[in-house]
Design brief:
- By secondary structure, the chain is mainly beta.
- Helix content is 0%, strand content 44%.
- It contains no helices and 25 strands.
- The strands form five sheets. Strands 13, 14, 16, 19, 22, 24 and 25 form a seven-stranded antiparallel β-sheet that branches.
- A hairpin with a 5-residue loop joins β9 and β10.
- 17% of the residues are buried.
């Protein structure tokens, strides 16, 4: 015969035996076998006196306290009082390991530092480390980390800072400025003087280009940001209005630009007229990061 819960062999019924004294009515605590009487519901209890089943509900005995049975009429000396207690159980509200859907809010979940796996292949997870840092992983890599002081870092967020490794001399109109020395390139999106957006978003792009030996005979000299979506003519100087060739000039700019996935961005030197005598110096830089 099948059972819900524990089977009889696992103790769904508990048996308590007491030997009465003269006139004894209350039976509780440790019995003759050192078992302590306890029950959850008087409907799950049977009481026998010398093998005769007594009637509960106050007729022959009362069982309401959960720890004692009280006879209506006192027992005789050496009467055997046998109490059978049956387990009271409820079918659990549970979800199967597979195939069930969970509804409602989950509260008071404590995984005690164990990594909480979120996907089928086990490479997306949330974990609280031993130093109180909350770590979110995607594809087995830490995508976001919040330390005990609330500082947030995103190790996979696109971000770069580059500069030239040497001067670029006598550059002509329309020349892409060389940035071949990476100070950092988080996520590996910069190569061949060009940043390539890994995802669609808004990118904060900044640059500061030092140009020496500008030609005063040129109508203008300009440094511009060229992206796949549009060109930003960000910095310009009217060199023709100067009295002589400037020894150096800085072209700084910071722009929030829209880029689609796989769009590119690079810095270009332009000049209208004049000689190709301008030099890009190594203390120039080009940087950017995904803002949102």
């Amino acid at each position: 015969m099948p059972y819900i819960g524990r089977t009889l062999g696992q103790g769904t019924r508990s048996r308590f035996l007491y030997t009465a004294t003269a006139g004894q009515t209350t039976f509780s605590g440790s019995d003759s076998q050192s078992n302590t009487l306890a029950y959850a519901d008087n409907n799950g209890l049977d009481c026998f006196q010398n093998g005769v089943l007594l009637k509960g509900g106050g007729a022959d005995y009362t069982a309401t306290s959960g720890t004692s049975v009280v006879l209506t009429t006192g027992a005789s000396v050496s009467d055997v009082i046998e109490i059978l207690v049956y387990d009271v159980f409820a079918i659990a509200d549970h979800v199967k390991k597979s195939g069930d859907a969970m509804t409602g809010a989950l509260t008071n979940i404590d995984v005690n530092g164990t990594e909480l796996i979120l996907d089928a292949d086990g490479d997306t997870s949330i974990q609280a480390s031993s130093d109180d840092t909350l770590i979110l992983k995607t594809n087995s890599n830490t995508a976001l980390s919040i330390d005990a002081n609330g500082h947030i870092t995103k190790p996979l967020q696109p971000a770069f800072l580059v500069q030239p490794s040497s001067d670029q001399t006598n550059i002509a109109h329309g020349t892409t400025i060389v940035f071949d020395s990476e100070i950092f390139d988080q996520n590996g999106d910069f190569a061949s003087n060009t940043f390539t957006a890994p995802v669609t978003g808004k990118y904060q792009i900044s640059f500061s280009v030092r140009v020496d030996n500008l030609d005063v005979s040129a109508t203008y000299t300009r440094i511009r940001l060229v992206t796949s979506n549009r060109t930003f003519n960000a910095s310009i100087i009217d060199t023709g209005s100067l009295s002589g060739d400037p020894v150096y000039w800085f072209f700084p700019q910071s722009i929030l630009v829209d880029m689609d996935a796989n769009d590119t961005a690079y810095i270009e030197f332009t000049q209208s007229g004049g000689a190709s005598q301008a030099d890009i110096r190594v203390d120039s830089f080009f940087s950017g990061y995904l803002a949102c």
